[in-house]
Design brief:
Keywords: Membrane, Transmembrane, Transmembrane helix. The chain crosses the membrane at residues 12-29, 35-53. This is Potassium transporter. By secondary structure, this protein is mainly alpha-helical. It has one domain. It has helices spanning 2-28, 33-44, 55-70. The longest helix has 27 residues, at 2-28.
């Protein structure tokens, strides 16, 4: 059980780290931050590096993004 929780924490840290890296890069290139987040999602998603490949995991992370955007 603890291993599963630890792996989820690693996935969330990878997701946040990809956003932190991609958004400033895209802003420096004169593009919007939303494109940076989309590129980060594509890079770490199932068709990129494959950190997130299960549909349930992607759904949970997407819900987290919706909740955080409402704050």
């Amino acid at each position: 059980m603890a291993v599963e929780q630890g792996s989820e924490l690693v996935k969330v840290v990878v997701l946040l780290g990809a956003g932190v890296l991609a958004v400033p890069l895209f802003k420096r290139l004169g593009l919007g931050s939303v494109l940076g987040y989309l590129a980060a999602g594509l890079a770490i998603g199932p068709f990129g590096m494959g950190f997130f490949s299960e549909a349930a995991t992607i759904l949970h992370v997407a819900k987290l993004g919706v909740v955080c955007s409402c704050l």
